[in-house]
Design brief:
about 240 residues, mainly alpha, 2 domains
Amino acid sequence: MFHKIEDAAYLVSCGLKPKLNPHNNIRYRECIDAYQTDDEYREMVKQIVTGFGLRVLDVSKLGIVMAVVEKQSPFRPILADHINTRFAEVEQRLMFGATILTIAAICFPNESSFDYDRARYVTVKDVRQRLIQLAESFNDKRDEQEVVPGLTDAWEVINEKAPIARHPSSGRHKAGSLFWVVEQTFKYLAEQKFISLKADEEDGTYRTHSKFRIYVREFSAMRAFEVIREALVKTEETINYE
């Protein structure tokens, strides 16, 4: 019994380490097999996860995926602190949120796209352009736009930060600019093993992992995500029509 509890706790700990891969860890693979075949073991894992204020989203040969669901979870501050350290200003965090939602909307344009567990490809350049287009569209039709908390503010910030240029000496994007935030967002998602760099063309082409699809599916009902998806479809229709 105690051995089984220890293994259940170990599986949970694996889910808290984004860089850990079951393909390179025999014990991790064995715990995944136990979760899928042993009802008692699976219930132990779920109880441990619940106690930490988490929820199991998926367990497969690719690993265990969990989400923070309780405000008092000891793991919520770690994630929040990590994001706040990288994006020190509120304006940067607004652009960070809009960037993640836009990446997700490009990769999963409709509900049926969640049914297929295959890699999607997205470029840094494309996301930057889409964000600028969405922000400009909001600005041009401000009176007609639905006010979505957080997202409405993000479009205003993006309109302000998009023109900020690179440093003349290094050629790098200036910290706090839209281009810088988009680059940092891609790097953050790669660190968390949601995506990985495939090629450096087009300022970086990334492929999605199964973990990203699982997480996006969880917040796909968010109104902000729905608004961005709908706006991207309209943008595509306009481009095709022209």
